[in-house]
Amino acid sequence: MALTGLEIFKLLPKTNCKKCGMPTCLAFAMQLAQKRAKLEDCPDVSEDSKQALAAAAAPPMRKVTFGTADNQLSIGQETVLFRHEEKFYSPTVVAVTVSDKLTGQDLKNRIEAINSLQFERVGTQIGAGAIAVINDSTDPAAFASVAEMVKQSSNLALILVSDSPDAIFAAVDKTKDSVPLLAAATADTAETMAKIAKENNCPLVARAESIESLSELTEKIKSQGAEDIVLCLHAESLRDKLYNLTRMRVLSLKKVFRPLGYPTISFIADGDPSQQAAIATSLICKYSGIVVVDTVEPYAFLPMLTARMNIFSDPQKPVQVEPKVYPIGEPDENSPMMFTTNFSLTYYTVESDVEASRIPSYILVVDTEGTSVLTAYSGDKLNEKTVADAMAKHNVESLVKHRRLIIPGYVAVMSGKLEEATNWEIMVGPRECSMLPKYLKEVWK
Ligand code: SF4
């Protein structure tokens, strides 16, 4: 939580020496509080005050990263309880388990199944983010061997799950260059696990049975020099999980309770794929930084990823595509030309229906500030002028030799004015773009 000007003032030398360029220390403190000055501008501030100010300025929830290169994942650093207050920043990582009891082809098949959990939705690639290797065997050598195999066979980030410091030590030794997340330290193993995490620059999960014992555990781990911590709180039911995660979020963000100022992880290994998907989706909404499931069923995975995509979008910014002309297939000078708006969901729905028609076409995307056809029309962001301007800007006349433009059926009312503004023949398309394949085959000639 940011300090007020008066709170900052108490930490300054109070000599009013003006070396910072301000007439008084109080004026400097006010500028600092509004982020219009830097602490370094005061040469006389003490080391203790610097540390106190830095600690107070730290975000209430720490950002924790694991994995490397393209698959480096960040969780935490959230600032609000409710998405509409600002936005949620770090999309929940969906991880899938691999048991270290698997060997040979079974192990390869499992890794391959997880690797293939990738989908495209409204132009964005979504999928599993991490593989959690589970030390079911209790054998450190088997755990290390499977962890190494996963590292070699997958680009996904790695989570090493064992209560045994020996097993974690053996597996980290084989995988430390991929910066795995280590799970988990308990009250009994905190010192050894924190030492392994610190020496290998890996983040560490702290696991406990109650919020109070978890708070003590994170302080203990931190005192060993391991700063990147992920919280895991035991709970019997989904109700308890949601209650605990919400309580921890409130304590970290609203009370700035530093021992709980970390992202969280939840393990969902029970139940059939549908049940796992339902639980994981609930925990993506509130407030798990990582969910670990053991299903690899695409039908269970896609709803979790879709929910995550929606929850972690910015509620104040519609998801948009770039306004321009998009060729679908390999259109030529005789191909249909149509327009839609740059609201992402609208564009990708139209695109997929045009693709389904198998008739190569052009789609002109008009900039309507990310709003759908009817919303844009009623807000006067879509009218004959904006469409004519977009046609001129993107030089559609050079792409086709005909002069016929298909417009969405919902804005048929603008066809007369649009014809006058463009000198193109306006063809009114269907209201629902799912009818476009039929329209293009039967009406477009
Ligand atoms: S330089 Fe430091 S001590 Fe001097 S007036 Fe500015 S804030 Fe105060």
CATH topology of the largest domain: TIM Barrel
Multimeric organization = single chain
Main beta sheet strand tally, sense and closure: 8 strands, parallel
Overall structural class, as computed from helix and strand content, comes to alpha/beta
- Named at the architecture level, the CATH assignment of the largest domain is Alpha-Beta Barrel
Rg is: 28 Å
Overall outline: flat
| Count of domain modules | 3
Say which CATH homologous superfamily of the largest domain is assigned. Answer: Dihydropteroate synthase-like
Strand tally is 17
Question: What would CATH call the class of the largest domain?
Answer: Alpha Beta
- Which compounds are bound in this model? iron/sulfur cluster
Work out the helicity level. 25-40%
- List the uncertain runs: none
Strand order of the largest sheet: 10-9-8-7-6-3-12-11
Number of H/I helices: 16
Distance between the termini: 64 Å
- Average pLDDT level: 94
Name the beta content range: 15-25%
Q: How does this structure look, described?
A:
The chain has 16 helices and 17 strands. With 445 residues, it is an alpha/beta fold. The protein folds into three domains: 5-57, Orthogonal Bundle (3-methyladenine DNA Glycosylase II, Chain A, domain 3), CATH 1.10.15.40; 63-311, TIM Barrel; 325-442, Rossmann fold. An eight-stranded parallel β-sheet has the order 10-9-8-7-6-3-12-11. Helix 7 packs across helix 8. The longest helix has 16 residues, at 238-253. The mean pLDDT is 94. It binds iron/sulfur cluster (SF4).
